[in-house]
Specification:
Number of helices: 10
Number of strands: 10
Radius of gyration: 20 Å
């Protein structure tokens, strides 16, 4: 990975933050991510993140404040407000041990369900914006439309247009009072303090008020597509229900609440997969084709869900 001015300066600032008391530092920085929407660098026990270029400071600042107030649920930031760097907003965080993607048997599904339930039951502060889940799905579909012709585009867009307007970020969400993460997946959990502290949720960029079922939608979609084993889905859902999570009924069939968000996350993931395959000039892999096939199978959304959304 070639260093560029943002990455170089972000590494320097991460080192300065990590060693405020001892400026002489023998250790180096590690690049955890370097994408157009996020550049993340670790230096010792400090992580510096440059957020997406279009990140609004008026939205990010209250999200940081909320994370600072909920250290038992969210990883708290090291600084209360973002800094500016090369036209980007930068935040600083303690390092946490991520989920090991090579050991699915240790995936913390119970922790994910528990933390989500606790988050959803926490009263949302008045200044918090809406969670960005539907907006991110709409962005993925817009990028798919711009990516060029592909046989998978039609079924993905067909499933997208069958969703209610709120799930396509074209109308207000039916719930704008519940605190939501907005982009839940296993990559959003870390152990803090590292290496084996309790699990905490990370990444506040999409945090806000909205339909809580959206936070359960990605694992629900993978389960519905046959990509997540039933026992792992059951562990996640049972943990969420055990802590009184409001997104689904406390028992019985959860799918009246999950159907629309799960379809939306299936479309979002399929759109990203097709866009990536076009950019790389390759065919869809097995998982990507499974997601496109799921979009092709989607019929129209039941009318009662278009009006009520999550229960």
């Amino acid at each position: 990975m070639t260093a560029h001015p943002l990455l170089t300066e972000l590494s320097r600032r991460a080192g300065a933050k990590a060693h405020e008391a001892t400026p002489a530092c023998p250790c180096g920085a590690a690049t955890l991510a370097d994408r157009p929407d996020a550049t993340v660098v670790r230096h010792a026990d400090t992580v510096a993140k440059a957020h997406a270029p279009d990140t609004d400071p008026a939205g990010l600042t209250p999200r940081l404040a909320l994370a600072a107030r909920l250290p038992d649920i969210l990883l708290p930031p090291l600084t209360p407000a973002p800094a500016a760097l090369h036209g980007r907003l930068v935040t600083f965080w303690p390092y946490g041990t991520p989920v090991d993607p090579d050991d699915p048997d240790l995936a913390p599904w119970e922790a994910a369900g528990t933390l989500l339930a606790l988050l959803h039951r926490t009263p949302a502060p008045a200044a918090l914006p809406e969670m960005r889940g539907p907006a991110k799905a709409a962005h993925a579909v817009a990028r798919l439309r711009a990516a060029g012709p592909h046989p998978a585009v039609a079924p993905v867009l067909g499933a997208w247009h069958a969703l209610p307007a709120w799930a396509r970020a074209e109308a207000p969400m039916p719930d704008v009072t519940t605190l939501c993460h907005g982009d839940l997946h296993l990559g959003q959990l870390v152990r803090h303090p590292a290496p084996d502290g309790p699990w905490r949720l990370i990444d506040v960029d999409d945090l806000g008020v909205g339909v809580p079922a959206w936070d359960l939608a990605r694992p629900a979609a993978w389960y519905a597509c046959g990509l997540l084993p039933p026992e792992e889905w059951t562990r996640f859902l049972a943990a969420y229900r055990a802590r009184g999570g409001p997104a689904v009924p406390e028992d019985g069939d959860p799918w009246d609440a999950l159907d629309v968000p799960a379809r939306a996350l299936t479309v979002q993931t399929a759109a990203r997969s097709v866009t990536k395959s076009l950019a790389e000039g390759r065919a869809l892999d097995e998982v990507e084709q499974c997601l496109v096939d799921a979009c092709a199978r989607m019929g129209s959304v039941p009318p009662q869900l278009t009006a009520t959304g999550a229960k």
